[in-house]
Amino acid sequence: MQDRTRTRNIYLIPYMLWIVLFVIAPIVLIFYYSLLNIDGAWSFENYKRFLSPIYLDMTLRSFWYAFLITGFSLLIAYPTAYLLTNTKHKQLWLLLIILPSWINLLLKVYAFVGILALHGPINSFLEAIGIGARQILFTDFSFIFVAVYIFIPYMILPIFNALEELNPSLVAASRDLGASPWVTFRRVIFPLTLSGVKAGCRAVFIPALSLFMITRLIAGNRVITLGTAIEQHFLVTQDWGMGSTIAVFLVIAMGLTMILTETGKKVS
Amino acid sequence: MPEDIIIRFENVTKQYNSDPPVLRDITFELERGKFYTLLGPSGCGKTTILRLIAGFVQPTSGEIYFDGQEITNVPPDKRRVNTIFQDYALFPHLNVFENVAFGLRIKRMKPDVIEAKVREALRFVNLEGMEMREITELSGGQQQRVAVARAIVNEPEVLLLDEPLSALDLKLRSEMQYELRELQKDLGITFVFVTHDQEEALAMSDEIFVLNNGVIQQRGTPKDIYDEPINRFVADFIGESNIVPGIMIRDYLVEFVGKRFECVDKGFDPNEPVEIVIRPEDLRITQKDQGKLQVRVDSQLFRGVHYEICCYDEDGNEWLVHSTRRATVGEEIGLDFDPEDIHVMRLGETEDEFDKRLESYEEVRHAG
Asked: A75 CA to chain B: closest CA distance, Å?
């Protein structure tokens, strides 16, 4: 018995090292830096600054954008996943949807810069049909559009899996008991795939809170989210303390999101 | 009496993609208030018939009528039938009460009416006091009862049961057979029960439809089907049987295993090749020289109510005997039977031809 626990402990060492070095240590460091002001002295100055209207406004805006991105992803992903489960070659279609997520994020973002640019193909098309070219890049629309495009596979996958696990005779039973297709969706299919929806929202909402590259390249820094602010503090203003403070709030927000989207006890 | 017909299938064929048809040109009628069983091996089309009645699938050709109205393309939620599924299909996110109330809530009944109806339905299936239980906390038998309550609370005119007892253990299963039969009598509605278990079918039904390869082989009361199977498939599928080839020499005289026997069948061509069925319980063990057949006992199993004795005759035909008397393995015994125990089957006869032939001797018997 003892031998077995010992070997098990040995196997745990690499993982434990990883956790300590790359999860626990960074969080402790972030917390430590957040308590230092720009001159390197201990203070709560950063927290006071974070609670000022400028930063609170930025926080609210970050949440609002993350919320919009998650919402639109869900609106597109749920019907897509539902259609996928009813198609013949679902694994192939699923692969085609996942495929873009294997390509480097930066490459995809640059591709969108080209597509959405003032002299890009979309504007040429708009001009050709007589609407005329307009600013698409560096707008809220382009920011949310590209973010949704990037995140959508992470929303589709868990929903697809939940729909696949759904016992088809439950849908038949609901119809049999007098429910129309829409009522069946509302009262049976959606509640029973809610765990997949929650997992998808978590996989999209949390990364969306700390986006910075897309805000820079697609939104042209018109949209400043918490992620952008952290990047700026560390790389531009060199105020590591303030950057860390924002990061502490992001960590707390992520923890809260995890708790709120808790799937609860699994239904078979 | 057309008002007594609740469901009618007219030349219904069902084919998925380019596979061979699951149902081939089926026509039948179901009367109100009877217990019907669709019996057959897996893949015979019995569940497809149920799904067609429920509306989960549409026929490739043909029409389905309910209470005189065509319902071929009516969606399942607009049909006055309810189904009990093989896996019960209870909603795991709802408790017992909400599962049973599901159909009533969709009809937007008043909460106090729903409460009263659900409680009554649960009392009917002996699940009082279980309203707040989660589905996962219930045993298989209790889940089965919830499924029954959830269906009957909607007061359907036809209840469809898709092998609902197959997941239960033997004892619970025979208990539920009684309960379902009682339930059907109490409710007075039509039950269409699908099973591959012939004993279940014989015990519960008013009428059995035996299906194979998408065709109704034979329909009739359990006794008719057991006593007068139309062909080898039905004889073999319903109960144990001894089936041997024979020749109908002339009316009331048949030859098999090299001997001629008096029988009660007629209406065949002279010297027509036929198949003979003798049920194991109709064979009596006698002294070797007194029996109509001489056989050697090969093996014996004690089945509780009877011994199942397997014998072989000189030509190597197997004879199965059910007897309350035990035999000794290796012993030579005689087997005796009466002329009415011999059932003669015409090769490749359709159900209509079979029924006509049976009617013809009924007339003779009544006349004589």
From this structure: 23
Please answer whether residues A158 and A196 qualify as being in contact, where contact means their C-beta atoms are separated by less than 8 angstroms: yes
Domains of chain B by residue range: 2-227, 241-280+338-368, 284-336
In sequence order, what are the beta bridge partners of B64? B9
Closest residue, chain B, to A180 (C-alpha):
B77
Per-window interface: B 6-45 vs A, CB < 8 A: none
CATH class of the region B241-280+338-368: mainly beta
- pLDDT tens for each residue of A132-146: 888 888 888 899 999
Contacts of A175 in chain B (CB under 8 A): 55-56, 75-77
Nearest partner of B294 among B342, B341, B248, B257, judged by Cα:
B257
Look at B87 and A173 and tell me if their CB atoms are within 8 Å: no
Domain boundaries along the sequence of chain A? 35-260
Question: Which of A172, A183, A188 has its CB closest to that of B91?
Answer: A188
Superfamily of domain B2-227: P-loop containing nucleotide triphosphate hydrolases (3.40.50.300)
Could you tell me which of B44, B91, B92 has the C-alpha nearest to residue B237?
B44
* Four-way CATH pick for B284-336: 3.30.830.10, 2.60.40.10, 3.90.800.10, 2.40.50.140: 2.40.50.140
- Could you tell me the sign of the dihedral formed by the alpha carbons of B116, B121, B122, B126, in that order? positive
- At the topology level, CATH places domain A35-260 in MetI-like fold (1.10.3720)
What is the interface pTM, i.e. ipTM, of the complex? 0.83
Chain A positions with Cβ closer than 8 Å to B? 167, 169-170, 172-180, 183, 187-188, 191-192, 267-268
Please give the sequence-ordered ranges of beta strands (E in DSSP) within B15-87, or none if there are none.
Answer: 23-31, 35-39, 61-66, 69-70, 81-84
Rounded to the nearest angstrom, the minimum Cα separation between B99 and chain A is 10
Per-residue pLDDT of chain B (368 residues; tens, 9 = 90+): 456 899 999 999 999 888 889 999 999 999 999 999 999 998 899 999 999 999 999 999 999 999 999 999 999 999 999 999 999 999 999 999 999 999 999 999 999 999 999 999 999 888 999 999 999 999 988 999 999 999 999 999 999 999 998 888 888 888 889 989 999 999 999 999 999 999 899 999 999 999 999 999 999 999 999 988 999 899 988 888 899 999 999 989 999 998 999 998 888 888 899 999 999 999 999 988 888 999 999 999 998 889 999 999 988 889 999 999 888 899 899 999 999 999 999 888 888 888 887 777 666 555 54
- B-chain residues within 8 Å CB-CB of A268? 92, 136
Number of A/B CB contacts below 8 angstroms equals: 63
Chain B: closest CA distance from residue A244 (Å): 43
- Contacting residues of A for B82, CB less than 8 Å apart: 176-177
User: In B79-197, which ranges are continuous DSSP H helix?
Assistant: 96-106, 111-124, 140-152, 170-187
Cβ distance of B102 and A177 shorter than 8 Å: yes
Q: What is the 3-state secondary structure (H, E, C) of B268-289?
A: CCCCEEEEEEECHHHCEEECHH
**Identical fold, B2-227 and B284-336:** no
Contact A170 B89 (CB under 8 A): yes
- Quote the pTM value: 0.82
